Amino acid sequence: EIFETISQFVGSGRAGRGIAVDVGTGTGQVAVPLSETLQFDKVVGVDRSEEQLSHAQESEGVEYIAGDAYELPVGDGTASLLTIAQTMHWLDLPLFFEEVNRVLVPGGTFAVLGYSIPQLSCAPVIESRFRRYYEDTLGSLLPSGAPGSYWDCNRTILDSGFRDVDFEATFTDVGRVWFHDQQEVSLDAHVAYLTTMSAYRTYLSRNGLSMEGEGDPLLAFKADAKEQMELAGMDALQVTYPYFLILSRKK
What we know:
Layout: H1 2-11, E1 19-23, H2 31-36, E2 42-47, H3 50-53, E3 62-66, E4 79-85, H4 93-103, E5 104-115, H5 124-137, H6 155-159, E6 171-185, H7 187-194, H8 198-206, H9 217-232, E7 237-250
Parallel strand pairs: 1-2, 1-4, 2-3, 4-5
Antiparallel strand pairs: 5-7, 6-7
């Protein structure tokens, strides 16, 4: 659905489907569909991590290059589309926006993808317990580097879908769309997903704790959630994963 929306936006413009650049490409999860589904002539996947790129999916139309988001390895005014997924919250936005404008052709599309925190609206008590863990234990509402924050980025910027970022000052035809993927998952699977959060691992490291050992805050959350599920007669959780897409064009 996200790629269909990007395709429609690109198709409504005048920049065509020449070169697409995927910044923070990782293993190519966005780069490959840009080539195989959206059918761009060439896709350049850029990531500063050579280790990530060594595991990237191979695709005939995709070239992976180790590089910097502020000095992309493409010429001025050559890209019809630039995408960045779950990466932009790490960057200096004015500096990155300047680079986006450098590489895009006139009217070229800039697409920002990301996801927010999972929601458990079907289980309000468990949702409340999760929010307490996410906000109080991990310090997710605090600025990066503040006492009590275990994130190395300002997580609220990402969770809000860059709500307060003025894209309109730099780009035109700005549109924001949220998608909601609802899945039925076991409690074990949900907790396993939460262990992938970098702030959780930082919390364990800073406090001298081990995963599933004494003091692991997710053990307490899991025990509490299990009790609430048993009281409600629930075998699984209905979890909603919110994704956002911000589309704009070079002025």
